[in-house]
């Protein structure tokens, strides 16, 4: 069985902890492990391998976190742009044998009752072997308006329902045969593709073209022009609500999608006044209770509990002004390591760059800026024009605009440098790549 892990989404409701380039599934929230890592650990007892469907900007975060778990039997499909879950799952299934059982799971959910989880997974597998598409319905614990619902009679699905108003959610909760839609599925790859072809032919055909045209090496990379031609739709709309082969497994597995700070506050320690405080510094509160306080290096969020759903509106407002606070942390993660912008002003920018052992940046040049590199720790291998040389701590070099260059860490310890950029423009898009180990086209 293959675990298809869906790693899309930006996690806007957990801003400012979660950003587009570092969404909630990769944040280390639980015993220094991320929801993504917990997903992998939870499912490796049932699945032989992971097939991770990810945005091209995020897959290296998955690689790093899988290395920590010593998971080596993983493969990747990289989407240049998200088109919702139906195309993502279709592309994944097209890469597998038709009789392969797939367990489709989001990467950002929390499940605490492992014994019950194992039970419902095994129950689902029995239906899958009989040719059914299986979804998992979560036994509701309160009237939630933020989830879709599945109406069922035993294992038979009667109807799927959209996110309800509170009065309707209360009726669903009291009704006894309504379940939260978990977004988890199990089926044979070929059965799903046949049902997709039957009920959403356009998505099937365009996904097939995209898969056939994809670059297939160690990683399957979908081309942008093919991905954009796929209709955007969820697996629920495209298949599950139309197929007559669907079964539901009622699941009491202590599940949470950790979709906002209200739900996160139920999973993390609160102070004596029921405040959830996440900060790298000491925070003192006087005569206040039931608050959510999220403090990062570049943003502060203060909210009353019960209002956490409104965080999305803050993010939407920031996006109107093209504010990088919605997409980037002050620490930016790259396949080769990280960089932190220490200061950014007219005519100059100062960064701290950390390069992992054995990694290197692209061979590149800039048109609008000069760069000064100073080694703080580690040993830097520098390519500058036709020359290649070593820099040790407290040594530096200067790179003129237009000069071909590369930074590399051939040592066993992390390399840390300070980069001072000086020029008329210091944006991340002022870069021409000549060679790149990670097949990227833009940004450093």
From TrEMBL:
One of its GO terms (biological process) is GDP-mannose biosynthetic process. One of its GO terms (molecular function) is GTP binding. CDD domains: cupin_PMI_typeII_C, GDP-M1P_Guanylyltransferase. It catalyses: alpha-D-mannose 1-phosphate + GTP + H(+) = GDP-alpha-D-mannose + diphosphate. Residues 3-271 form the Nucleotidyl transferase domain. Belongs to the mannose-6-phosphate isomerase type 2 family. This is mannose-1-phosphate guanylyltransferase. It comes from Arcobacter venerupis.
């Amino acid at each position: 069985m293959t675990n298809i892990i869906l790693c899309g989404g930006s996690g806007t409701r957990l801003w400012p902890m979660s950003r587009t380039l570092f969404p909630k599934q990769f944040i280390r929230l639980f015993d220094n492990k991320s929801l993504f890592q917990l997903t992998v650990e939870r499912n490796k007892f049932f699945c032989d391998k992971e097939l991770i469907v990810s945005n091209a900007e995020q897959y290296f975060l998955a690689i790093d976190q899988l290395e920590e778990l010593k998971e080596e039997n993983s493969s990747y499909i990289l989407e240049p742009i998200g088109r919702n879950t139906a195309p993502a799952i279709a592309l994944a299934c097209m890469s597998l044998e038709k009789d392969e059982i797939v367990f489709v799971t989001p990467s950002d959910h929390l499940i605490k009752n492992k014994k019950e989880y194992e039970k419902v997974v095994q129950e689902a597998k029995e239906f899958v072997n009989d040719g059914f598409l299986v979804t998992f319905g979560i036994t509701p614990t309160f009237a939630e308006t933020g989830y879709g619902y599945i109406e069922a009679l035993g294992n038979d699905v009667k109807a799927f329902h959209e996110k309800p108003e509170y009065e309707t959610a209360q009726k669903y909760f009291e009704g006894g045969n309504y379940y939260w839609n978990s977004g988890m599925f199990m089926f044979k790859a070929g059965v799903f593709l046949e049902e997709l072809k039957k009920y959403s032919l356009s998505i099937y055909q365009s996904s097939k073209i995209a898969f056939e045209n994809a670059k297939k090496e160690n990683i399957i990379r979908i081309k942008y022009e093919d991905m954009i031609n796929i209709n955007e739709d969820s697996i629920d709309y495209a298949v599950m609500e139309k197929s007559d082969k669907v079964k539901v497994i009622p699941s009491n597995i202590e599940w949470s999608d950790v979709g906002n700070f209200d739900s996160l506050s139920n999973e993390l320690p609160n102070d004596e006044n029921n405040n959830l405080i996440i900060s790298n510094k000491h925070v003192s509160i006087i005569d206040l209770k039931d608050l959510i306080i999220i403090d990062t290096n570049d943003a502060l969020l203060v909210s009353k509990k019960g209002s956490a759903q409104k965080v999305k509106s803050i993010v939407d407002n920031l996006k109107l002004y093209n504010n990088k606070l919605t997409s980037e942390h002050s620490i930016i993660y790259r396949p080769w390591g990280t960089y932190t912008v220490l200061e950014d002003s007219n005519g100059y920018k100062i960064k701290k760059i950390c390069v992992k052992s054995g990694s290197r940046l692209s061979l590149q040049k800039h048109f609008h800026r000069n760069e000064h590199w100073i080694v703080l720790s580690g040993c830097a291998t520098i390519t500058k024009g036709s020359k290649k040389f070593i820099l040790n701590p407290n040594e530096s070099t200067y790179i003129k605009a237009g000069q071909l260059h590369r930074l590399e860490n051939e040592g066993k310890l992390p390399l840390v440098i300070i980069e001072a950029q000086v020029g008329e423009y210091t944006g991340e898009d002022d870069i021409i790549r000549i060679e790149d180990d990670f097949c990227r086209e833009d940004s450093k």
